[in-house]
Structures are given as C-alpha cells and as structure tokens.
Amino acid sequence: MTSLVLLPGMMCDARLFGPQIKALSGRLPMHLAPITGEEIIEALAASVLDHAPRRFSLVGLSMGGIVAMEVIRQAPDRVDRLALLDTNPRAELDEVKQRREPQIEKVRAGYLREVMRDELKPNYLANGPKRQEVLDLCMDMALDLGPEVFERQSRALQTRPDQQDALKSVSVPTLVLMGEEDRLCPRDRHELMQRLIPNARLEIVSGAGHLPTLERPDTVNNAFKTWLELS
Asked: Residue 231: pLDDT band by 50, 70, 90 thresholds?
C-alpha cells in the first residue's frame, strides 16, 4: 500500500490536515513532512525526499504545494500520485518579495502574532461558520512554529523557482484543488496547473478560501478518496 506524504502550508503543521488524517489514516500509511528547516525550496524538497518512503503519494497545500512541485521535479520516479492544493507554480513576483521584508522585520522585533493577525490571516478564509475557529487554529500553529520558521519560509518563497516547465513532465494521476474564494492563490493559477499537467483533474471547493482542508473538510476528504482510488 502506498504511503501518503502531506506537506503543510507556511506557518502550518499537521493540524492543517487534521480532518484528512482522521478520515484516511485507517486506510493507508500517512506521513507529515515538516518544511521548516531550510530557506531554499530545493533544500526543503531534498529534505522531504530524505525522510519519505521509497514510493509515495504526495499532497501539498500552498507553500507545501510549491515544495511538492520541486519534490516531483527532483525525483519523479518516487511520486506515484500528486495533489496540489491552493498553490502557485510561478516564481514570486517582485512586489510580493518586497512586501515580505517589512513583515520579516516586524517578526524579528517580536510581532509575529500581529503580522499573522493583520497581514496574513485576513486573506486566508471564506466567510462561514468555521471561520473564527480556523483562524484561531492558524494562529496557534504559527505561534508554535515561531519567528525563525517565519523568516526561513519567507526567504524560501522569495527565491522559489518557476515550476511551469517541470509540471509539463508530470505523468502521475494529479488532483489540482482550490477553495473557490482563495485570494492568495486564485483560480487562474490552478487552471494553469491543470493545463500544464497532462490529464490533471481540477476541483473547485465552494464555500472555502485558502484552506479548504479545514474549511470544507468533507469535500476535500471525498476528493482525496477519489484521487487515491479509495472510494
């Protein structure tokens, strides 16, 4: 049975996939791969590969999706299924790179909570009954990971490679999934990935923003079961 490797987004940990772990852990082996220890995407992907099973299915959300693209670029023979959630195959725009610098300075000065609260978290979610609960969980994950991880991950995102050419070579069953109201990684990025990856399936989750795994977990769980052929 193939293992499932999960790569969380920036300033997130296994709790980002809590509903999926609960729903699927009895069906297949699951591994959460932290992406916190390096400040270059290529090095983060190499670390994932160092600790992953020989063959595995791979899920990445947001920054985790960016690392997942690099994982399959480095070792296409080791990934047998790929799921890219609420992510972006392009290199970071210069204006976004520049916006990260004052955020990093604030976090260095002790204002991680404020940066997450005022500049990042408001962009994450759709309006819905779980919004505050999910925002609180995001804050808990960020504060647990801390300012050093924030800076390393920010640097990795600033210098990330464009993966559009690499995606053209993906030959495994691929799910591209996004929350319909995702403002960080909008629909055109996902339609681009669907076009680039042969036979990729695009799923749009209504009533969700950037974190559909938490906002609409049942919909994501069902999409994963179909993708993994567990239904």
From this structure: low
